[in-house]
Write a structure and sequence with these properties.
Length: 478
């Protein structure tokens, strides 16, 4: 299918809005729509298309190479990867909470009155061997202490589970970031390919109208055509040049967006794409798509994990009402100015039970209960979104396929109609208006066909994103 074209009358087919909600329609310089400036700009674009790549520099990208480059250099993907690394340290911290804490302490204290270096222990009757402690006003002390949590109402184990689920959620978000990036890259890539076809057709329209203008001028000299035909041709030629500039600006803006998504630091670098041949990309059925969406879509899996995290957090909050049991001990020594340390130690088992906290624990439990309800609604919202997005994608694909068939037939009819009108005009049986109308109809059909093809390709890419299909692995491997 020769997908190319831009109509000289229907500029709406040239209005290009980029994916990601950014306006991609570039400004057209005033005064360059119909004069020599427009012709020079067209010539520059034609020359740029024929320029060879720089020696040793591969600046021509296929869709697979675009995705492969972006997955390595896009800042959003790198940030998502760093988030996983950050959550890994969170898991290590949760494990560390379950381990004993050993501290080395020391210091010096100045008292008002002399203090004993060791506890005073007097056993009556006093006998030989009873030690009277030394008394010093300045006491140096140093030692090692430890604390080992034994029971905290299940908060230690659940805290570890929550940390591990946070890491898993970060991994899901990385996959979701990659899938969003792949969809955006694919959309921009297909849009550039569409604009390349539109550029070729628009350039062809300009040359066709220039040729028709010469014929009208010739007939005008011989007196077989009115001057009005020449004026109409000049107007349509101006529109065609304006449309060509619009396509050129849109294409340049699309390349800038593509380089931004790819994470290119050198935004001044010149790149081009290697358009792929039209291929009928396979995609799953509606029922299969829904099943895949619920089983492998990253944001849905992340929502399920957040729901489990909410349940664990609620249990952690309730566990604060249970006693804390821990083992503790210390080995230390005290000395005066002579640094003759007197050693001592203790070991014990302690517990604490919250009796009154002003309603703090109750407030935390109520807060976690509300957060759990929010997580349930978030999971339900994503489930509904998956259903809607999958159905919309299938409807768009089916609609685009039907439009492709219709526009192909329209192009065949429009080509034949233009051929007939050109013959009629050359033989004096037709009018210039009929020729221009026939060419406009052909360009409209070509633009519609390109738009239908673009809609089908982007709808398939959107379906892949909607079902969580990591199709970028296939693209990067090709």
């Amino acid at each position: 299918m020769n997908c190319g074209g831009v109509t000289v009358r229907v500029t709406r087919y040239l209005a290009y809005t980029a994916v990601l909600g950014l306006s991609m329609t570039g400004p057209v310089a005033a005064g360059d729509t119909a004069g020599p400036g427009a012709r020079e700009a067209v010539a520059e674009v034609r020359v740029a298309q024929t320029l060879p790549s720089a020696p040793g520099v591969d600046n021509r990208y296929s869709l697979g190479s675009v995705i492969r480059y972006a997955l390595k250099h896009n800042p959003g993907v790198r940030i998502a990867g760093r988030n996983i690394e950050s959550e890994t340290y969170g898991v290590d911290s949760a494990r560390a909470d379950m381990m004993p804490k050993v501290d080395f302490t020391g210091g010096v204290t100045r008292y008002r009155w002399d203090m004993p270096l060791t506890p005073i222990v007097i056993t009556l009757p006093l006998n030989q061997g009873t030690e009277i402690p030394e008394f010093k006003r300045t006491i140096w002390d140093t030692g090692v202490s430890f604390r080992l949590p034994l029971f905290r109402g299940g908060r230690l184990v659940r805290g570890l589970h929550v940390a591990e689920m946070k890491k898993a959620v970060a991994e899901d978000r990385l996959r979701m970031t990659k899938q969003d990036l792949v969809y955006n890259l694919s959309s921009v890539y297909y849009k550039i390919a569409q604009l390349e076809r539109l550029f070729i057709a628009s350039d062809s329209a300009v040359r066709q109208l220039e040729s028709h203008k010469k014929n009208v001028e010739l007939f005008l000299k011989t007196g077989t055509a009115p001057r009005l035909d020449l004026l109409k041709t000049e107007v349509e030629l101006s529109h065609a040049k304006e449309s060509l500039l619009l396509v050129t600006n849109n294409r340049a803006s699309s390349f800038e967006l593509l380089k931004n998504l790819m994470g290119m630091d050198d935004m001044a670098a010149h790149i081009s794409i290697a358009p792929e041949k039209d291929r009928d990309q396979p995609y799953p059925s509606l029922e299969e798509s829904l099943n895949k969406g619920f089983s492998q879509r990253p944001d849905f899996k992340a929502a399920e994990k957040k729901l489990k995290m909410g349940e664990q957090r609620l249990k952690i909050a309730r566990g604060k009402r249970l006693p804390d049991i821990y083992a503790t001990g210390q080995y230390w020594g005290q000395a005066g100015n002579e640094f003759a340390f007197k050693e001592n130690y203790y070991m014990g088992l302690k517990f604490s039970v919250p009796l009154f906290d002003g309603g703090l624990i109750t407030s935390e439990i109520d807060k976690e209960r509300v957060e759990l309800e929010k997580a349930k609604e978030e999971e339900r919202s994503i489930r509904l979104s998956i259903t809607r997005e999958v159905r919309d994608a299938h409807l768009t694909i089916a609609n685009a396929k039907e439009r492709i068939i219709v526009t192909e037939r329209a192009m065949e009819s429009a080509r034949e109609n233009l051929r007939v009108e050109l013959l009629k005009y050359d033989t004096g049986a037709g009018t210039s208006t009929d020729v221009i109308d026939a060419q406009t109809a052909l360009l409209r059909a070509e633009a519609d066909a390109c738009q239908a093809l673009f809609d089908k390709e982007t709808a398939i890419a959107y379906l892949r994103k909607a079902i969580g299909d990591e199709g970028y692995e296939e693209e990067t491997g090709r």
